[in-house]
Amino acid sequence: MALKGNLRDFSTTQLLNLINLARKTGTLTIQHSGESAHMSFREGKLIYAYMGDNDNNHLAKILQHSGKLSAEQAQIIQAHAEGKSDKQLGHLLITAGRVTQNDIIQSVRQNVLDIVYRLFTWVEGVFRFEANKLPSPGHITIPIDLESVIMEGSRRLKEWEVLQEELPDLDVSLQFTERPDARLRNINLTVEEWRVVSFVNPRNTIRQIAKANNLSEFEIRRIVYGMLQAGLVEFVDKPKPAPVAEAADQGRRPKRQAVEQPPDVKRSVVERLIDRIKSI
Amino acid sequence: MQAVKMVITGPFSAGKTEFIGAVSEIDVVSTERKISSAAEQIKETTTVAMDFGRITVGDDLVLYLFGTPGQRRFDFMWDILSQGMLGFVVMVDSTKPETFREAKRILETFESYASTPYVVAANKQDMEDAWEPEDLRIILRLRQEVKILPCVATDKESVKNVLLELLYSILEQLDQNSQ
């Protein structure tokens, strides 16, 4: 089945969250203003990315961008490497003592992250996820946990509306999801984010955490949004829908003051309904 | 005569009227009007007050299905329709990601009305562009205990399955409350 849509409706952060949680394998392509970005994932981990034509993603160019090769070296190597895969070329460069294996891994990793971080500024663009489509075996793939990428994406978020919609109510509490220690070990958090983490407790509302840490509503929303999308925390009580007046594009929303209890119906009545539906 | 009711809700064009029509023993009583909004002119008419279907269980029991209007300007009807409901179905058009955010809002609004069980029906699963139900679960941030069911609203068996799963959830809640 297809997974396609527009970044107008889902942010890049949300898409990465979906791929992460669903442990998806395949390639996500996003097209925006004549540009196209391609990102490949294996079991929910980001492994490869390139912009535009994959020919421009040559290992020699990546090493040049990271300062491991000069422009001249990169040009000569690229000219002589025709027909060789990135893996073969990387092996040759390591054998020749031009670069180390770690140079290649760090350069490729940074190249992938630079591409993905750039996508966080795209607010519109058609996307399509093709399941099980992966780069050819000759490409160098580096598995990168998406939690850190998602947190970085949320740090770059500037749209108040998105945060307001995703987190309409600050009077709810947070709790850690399962095995937060394992997740936290792999994520680079800022000092502010660690301070928020230290206050996560079902007894503390988000508003109280913000007050304790002297954070504005925008700042606390951005941090909590990132932690929610990265799967670090979850709501103790689900947030209530945004009040009508606060949601810019919601129009009227009828709200009842008290939550109604279910009608008093006997079990036998429900069982009869089940039998009747089955017989239709 | 005891009457129980279920509400079928969801965004504009999610398939609520078709859903009720697939199982109702009467022709769905629809309050449809021609669509005036250019943005929503992907079908000719839409429900403005409610859809109404009926399933008679016996001389003493009848199930009513109420479909809510999909357009926002008629959402004052939601509160009225939800009063006394046994449970509700949130219909989502799996092929229209632009409506998922609205589906989530509707779901949260109905959740705030009553603590009745509900299920989410991932409609139009027979279409090529349909998102998988489990992907919808993540996007809609549904808790694991909330059922999200593949659905084709024009297929009677598919609709029956959604209603049955809702009724099983209602039974579970009754059992929990009695413990």
Q: Describe the main β-sheet of chain B briefly.
A: 7 strands, mixed
Main beta-sheet strand count, sense and barrel state of chain A: 5 strands, antiparallel
CATH architecture of chain B: 3-Layer(aba) Sandwich
Which outline of chain B best applies? globular
Strand residues, percent of chain A: 5-15%
Query: Rounded to an integer, what's the Rg of chain B over CA atoms?
Result: 15 Å
Keywords:
heterodimer, A: 280 residues, alpha+beta, Arc Repressor Mutant, subunit A, 2 domains, five-stranded antiparallel sheet, two-stranded antiparallel ribbon, 14% strand, globular, B: 179 residues, alpha/beta, Rossmann fold, seven-stranded mixed sheet, 5 helices, 7 strands, 33% helix
Write the layout of secondary structure elements.
The complex is a heterodimer of chains A (280) and B (179).
Chain A: E1 3-6, H1 12-21, E2 26-32, E3 35-42, E4 45-51, H2 59-65, H3 71-80, H4 86-95, H5 101-119, E5 126-131, H6 146-155, H7 160-166, E6 174-176, H8 180-185, H9 191-199, H10 206-212, H11 217-229, E7 233-235, H12 267-279
Helix pairs in contact in A: 1-6, 2-3, 2-5, 6-11, 7-11, 10-11
Chain B: E1 2-9, H1 16-23, E2 29-34, E3 45-58, E4 61-67, H2 76-82, E5 87-93, H3 100-113, E6 118-123, H4 133-139, E7 147-150, H5 156-178
Parallel strand pairs in B: 1-4, 1-5, 5-6, 6-7
Antiparallel strand pairs in B: 2-3, 3-4
